[in-house]
Amino acid sequence: RNNDPIMAYQILGVDRNADETTINKAYRALALKWHPDKNRDKVEFAEKVTKIINAAKDAMINKKPDTEIQI
Known about the structure:
Elements: E1 6-7, H1 8-12, H2 20-34, H3 43-61, E2 68-69
Antiparallel strand pairs: 1-2
Helix pairs in contact: 2-3
């Protein structure tokens, strides 16, 4: 298991200079994919991924794409 941090923009799969619309679109797609209700067989993992996605979105919206998110 790799515990290296990943940059916020990498988590969302967007360019580091992405606009807010692009950030929100990427966030929504990942949030829907990893929502715990859609991953009942792996709820704990889905909850962790959701927290990571939320942290990445917050960093990007605050114009801090190089924020390291620990996974």
